[in-house]
Amino acid sequence: MDELKIYEFRPLFLTLDRIGPFRNVHEIDFTDSKHHPCNFYMVVSANGMGKTTALEIFSCLMNLLGKKEISTYGHEDLDKKDGRAQLDFWVRLHWQGRDMSIVLSVLAGRIGEEVFLKPWTDELLTMHNAENWHRVGFRSPVPGRYEAIMSRKDELLLDLSSTIRASLENAHEEHFLQPGFHLPTALYFSAYRDIPGISDDNNGNGRNISQPSHWNYRPLYAFDAHSTLWRDSLDNLVIWLKWLENGSFEAAQKLIDEQVFVDTPKRLKGVRKVPPEALVDAGDGEIHRLDRLSSGEKSLAHLFLRIGAHGTANTIILIDEIDAHLHIRWQHRLYNALEKLAEDHPGFTVIMTTHSTEILRRFTTSMNIEKESLYLGGDLIEQQELI
């Protein structure tokens, strides 16, 4: 039998209810006016209205893929309260000898036996060019109790789940870094994207070549503010990529040089052995560490090193507040880099939030300009009436 292979994995809708500020049902539509899944998407709202919550719930649901059982969703409103959520994907794949397109819904929370936040009718499936609707996830009839939703008779989902679990257990370093690795992943970046110095002495005590904390294939990687521990550091990641000697470091080097240091003399030079750390060539004869970059360069280096190391052929990039701590010039540089990333990588989807009026103005202007490889969309979260 042919192996299951995913060609495209795109978000369609995120539906939230009784979660954070979303006291009523709120749906985020990730498609454009022609029902095509967007690959460049902006979520906008005032502070406290739910932008970050939406990205957090997206991450929680993505993390359920491949799970047989769970002990937590990872969000208080799902785990301890009455919150419920549904995340719908459009998936084009090869299975049992033929190509097909389906809608895959991932559910979590206080979901009833037959109640879905967004039921997919035959009409809706046809509208979105999908043959069938498949459901997976967990329901909680009471807080703290988790019951799998996936039907035992759904052979496609059983194959997908077993394929994901096999990759979680068996993926080698060089496996998922290859461009052809097809399983989906989401990379969630919080608004805090600093690169702090590493907590050890100048002799490098405690720095060994070791597998980074974030490694191998996962359906979700959530990158919060970096700790100062060696195993969590970007320097350890770069050293590890260099040590693998499989082209991973060179790929990351190329991405950083093209996206972060473009139009500057700076380059990611290589690594130092004692103490082990990544080196940046400033172009004026000075060589320095990653944590000596400017705040704007750190933010971009954090993003693109992680994307280069952990992305698969089907990657969803979630970035909270792309403008955070960035001068307007750096905001535009990051916007340019993300737009190019979506254009250059057909399986990538970029979903971001912003408070920047400049970036929002640029994004809304871009929505009126058709580009062959970019599908833009956005959601404005407004005040909901309390129930």
TrEMBL record:
InterPro entries: AAA+_ATPase, ATPase_AAA_core, Bact_Antivir_Def_Nuclease, P-loop_NTPase. Pfam families: AAA_21. One of its GO terms (molecular function) is ATP hydrolysis activity. CDD domains: ABC_ATPase. Transmembrane segments: none annotated. Residues 37-373 form the AAA+ ATPase domain. This is AAA ATPase. It comes from Methylobacter tundripaludum (strain ATCC BAA-1195 / DSM 17260 / SV96). The lineage of its organism: Bacteria, Pseudomonadati, Pseudomonadota, Gammaproteobacteria, Methylococcales.
